[in-house]
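Archive transcription. Copying these from loose printouts into the bound notebook so they stop getting lost. Printout 1 of 2:
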Amino acid sequence: MRVKRRTYIFWAVFVAAAIIRIAMSFNRAPPDARTCLKQADIGIGTVDEDPARTETGQVFVVHAGSIWTASSSPLTPCAADILVRLKTKLYPRFTYGDRVSFAGRLSVPRDFKGDTGRSFDFQGYLAKDDVFYEMKSAVVTIATDTPGSFRSGGIFSSFDISAVLFAVKRGFVANLEHALGEPHAALAAGLVVGEKSALGPDLLQDFRIVGLIHIVVLSGFNITIVGVALRRVLSFLPRVWGIIVGGIGIALFGVLVGGGATVVRSCFMAGIALVADLIRRDYSVARALAFAALVMLVQNPLILLHDPSFQLSFLATLGLILLAGPIESRLSRIPERFGMRGTVASCLATQIFVSPYILYMMGQISIIGVVVNILVLPFIPATMLAVFLTGALGFIHPFLGMIAGWGAHLLLQYELFMVTRFAALPFAAAYVPPFSVWWVAGFYGVFIAGYAFFTHKKS
């Protein structure tokens, strides 16, 4: 009884903290930069994240120490200590930690509508990361010859683990580009380090149509493969040291790939599993998911309403927990060889559970997603291993990377072939007009009530 009471208190504290943080977030005001808006401004700051690059330019967030209105004389700051999203030309290329000067017109981000008529809350999406302003056509130059010497918040440091990991990531992607060529290198980088920008809008749309976009945005599926691989590689170590080193490796991998909501949740759940193994306690996936979600909400409550990655990741994982087992038990005619039955059950579970929200948010749902997932997912672990060897051996010698790249190229070619061919089918995806969010809430409400009823009745 005492153990149960402690458990209830533990969960009550976290739930209460999450609710309080969510309530407080509604009253958060952006930093004042009104006098900077709609006029020529200049500023100086530090690149706060690894830039996202496309065919037309690069986008990144700068932690601006000061911003001045260019027309004022003498120059007087109109804003200080704020995050600004910059869009600039593809060259010169910038990296995390570079101290830069920038010039342009500061503006407030605006929401926009997609091809299906859905409005995307772009302002809220940026605000969750404390970004309230942007420059769409900024002129950016390096402000110092010592990139990485200036850090956000004014802390000077000669070593930054994030800068080191991002440098390794850039070198890894460059090795893939040299050994594989495009678009194979872009898909390879998306699979292993979440670098999907080079795929291009058309190919990304094909991945959405066939329901495989999750493999190129580094979902929990990819993180799980990395975690299993780390445990196998470290199996020669004593149990405790293997768990500790594996946990550190997963955390570093999360930083390396940018630490998005999906990555954070997956790494957090993997960390909970490692701790449970360390103290020899049973691991509950449902409790780990709930705990990870609560911790993330306490840390950043805005992701609840403004981060589609967190929302879809949570729903997909919950669908796997609730539906994969019951569905698999009813698929006795599908053979278990090569994990086919489990793959089918997992695909059906996630499709059923996330489809209402995807339809509401995007207006598009893949009809052939289960089929394509069954044909592609069994090859993803081997592909990730081949891609990792290609990028890693490229650091030793480019020729070694090219040798390993032959196998990776074949696997990637198969996956690209499946995506492009199935996406070209006229019935590959269904589109629906916009509808109220209350239909989505009603679906999940009815589902959860029904699941609770039948689970209680069965028990």
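Printout 2 of 2:
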Amino acid sequence: MQTKFGLKTTATLVIAVVCSGVLPVPSEAQDGGAAQPIALDAISLPPGFQIEVYADGLQAARQMALADDGTVFVGSFGQFTGAPEIGNIYAVRDTDGDGAADEVMTILSGLTVPNGVAYRDGALFVAENNRITRYNNILADLQNPPDPVVLAEMPVNGINHSWKYLEFGPDSKLYVPVGGPCNICENDDPWATIMRMNADGSELEVYARGVRNSVGLAFDPGAGDLWFTDNGRDRLGDNLPSDELNRATARGQHFGFPYCHQGDVLDPEFGEGHSCSDYRPPVVKMGPHVAAIGMTFYRGDMFPSQYKDQIFVAQHGSWNRTTPLGYRVAVVRIQDGNSSGQEVFAQGFYDGTRVAGRPVDVLELADGSLLVSDDLQGVLYRISYAE
């Protein structure tokens, strides 16, 4: 069943928005794999950890999803490569189990910003900027994928915050953010929300509101709550507002956009008459303009016990700050649904003068190692631990 904006209808839905314009494209991201090779010995990690290239040749690699047989599906960001027609989905395999991929296949191409991917019950789900699709029985023949089943049409405003991220929840529903169509504006549903639907596209509904631009979702392995990153607005200077790590405990909660930022800063244009106390504050302020995006709860046994059930977050890095922040992977310590903040886990993708890599997403493999996608280098890194 195909659903459009939560309505089981083929009628056109017109949504009135006030939009301040499309943001500039980050210059560091335009190459999507044409940057100078990164020196892995420049990446600093805690003692005992090591980083290696798991796979390369994945132009503008973005979200990753793990299949039952160990295949890693990878979305891409065609619009940022200078060749919008690329729009690839990759399948990556380590067939000999040596910790490095020996097969990298382009299984789909020509899609429109297919940033998001998810795998469930033998099917690959893909989030383009304008629709959510499903490819049934995808592993049967990766060289000849089936035709897509269109599950839902998504609203589009150019490429402005239109990159999507997919994650299945413990309720078996598929969650997908719909970013705000602007830097800062008032908007109606489904803009600036996180939506969810059944795996067949039915019952599409808004789950959370006031979410400016989330490109990272994960579910608490204990409580089952939805956690998500959110990128703060621009043009309030270098140090405001902070990007956020949020926790949604029930449907219908509002996280502030466009009225309140980082839980305690009213917007100078839209905040009048509002109170930050009316909205859900972030659990962690991730830092101004760090571009916190892909995230995961670590559930494996390879890493030391202090990392168990903690959150790893990829920080893509600033494009609009005098002194850039981000370009790293952070770990957020969580206990009883609360956190004292974040600490840097992997850094060195930016040396103060040159951007050498831009982490996008994090994915745990079956052996407990962690993959990190990099859309500037077009590679997947594997982080492992040995005493």
